[in-house]
């Protein structure tokens, strides 16, 4: 078996009640109906407009990553042109790490900053497992089965991918589903988040000032960002580890900088409590700064150089500015409307499925002769692979993602198994003892 050709580039006093204006007071007519509200957005979820914009970012990232991998696949037959090679190094998967860390940290950040209730780790992990595991495991099993038609096959490769540990294997990190190494980091971030978030919350309970709580949380994010920066520089400058030692530079200790940036952005949004920080021309200035920083990181990303090691950490700062211009900026601007374009948000909705299947789709199309590695046919290859991958992502979303997402209903908001028939499991009410005539006469006297 050979590896894939794609390389990575609120609070009330106990017992108190509160009836909001317009609500039905307990015990009033219609109170039973008023006590059963419709579906509510998850705690910490962005406003609807913001959610559409973030989905737009996800759609752009998904399309860009597919085009990037097609480009990498094509330039392997033309490695003499330095500009062609440099374009093949423009990797943007870190923006997905920033986006994921922001969305998942936001409820924890709001709870810590405002000292409201903290959601349970069980609830968090169950929701993430339902979101990630079914599609991921199906993808791994299908592709591994195709590539290993004879048993036992490379069982170690299968085991590592199913357990998200392939990122620690220098040989097999890009086997089976090459881009799945990023899912390994994603899952490890979940574990880090459920370990650190309760600790940060407890630390904030000892801090009276809201502003000081924000400062402490941001300092923690800075430390998390500094760890991979220090690791990467020590590995390259002090120990001279080459970039091809994939576990050193693609493990969590090296790539968590983007997650730390997303966590810091969540803290800043929680601190603003829904109020924009940037208005007027400032969001545009942030976006221009983001482009400049990412372009600089890309330009110094040369093979066997310090820039190759520093690219992801520097680019993460640019992604911070870009995302910040949206989630911390005033809404209604052209950029916000562009991100909310329905076609783009639709692609963002199915982006996980598209991401999982795009490499097998590309390799299949190449085997069928629909595309090839010729740079002259690169535009055609990008168009075909994008179209086929989005189609496969749409089908996978409705066949796998959407149905398995319903499994979340099996547990309540605390992560406990949901009781669908409480009337069958509730203890029977005690039957009052019958009053005899003698006892009744005594009572009357």
Protein structure class: mainly alpha
Percent of residues in beta strands: under 5%
Report the C-alpha radius of gyration, rounded.
26 Å
Secondary-structure element order, as H and E?
A: HHHHHHHHHHHHHHHHHHH
What is the 3D form?
Answer: globular
Please give the alpha-carbon distance between the first and last residues. 96 Å
Low-confidence stretches: 1-45, 438-445
Return the average pLDDT rounded to an integer. 85
Proportion of helical residues: 55-70%
The largest sheet is:
none
Number of helices in the DSSP assignment: 19
Task: Tell how many strands the DSSP assignment holds.
Answer: 0
Question: What this model shows, in words?
Answer:
The protein has 445 residues and is mainly α. 64% of the residues lie in helices and 0% in strands. It contains 19 helices and no strands. The chain has helices spanning 31-34, 48-75, 82-87, 94-114, 121-147, 155-162, 181-205, 210-238, 246-250, 252-255, 257-272, 282-299, 306-327, 334-339, 342-349, 351-367, 378-405, 422-425, 437-444. Helix 4 packs antiparallel against helix 8 (210-238) and helix 5 packs parallel to helix 16. Mean pLDDT is 85; it is low at 1-45 and 438-445.
What is the element layout, followed by pairings?
Layout: H1 31-34, H2 48-75, H3 82-87, H4 94-114, H5 121-147, H6 155-162, H7 181-205, H8 210-238, H9 246-250, H10 252-255, H11 257-272, H12 282-299, H13 306-327, H14 334-339, H15 342-349, H16 351-367, H17 378-405, H18 422-425, H19 437-444
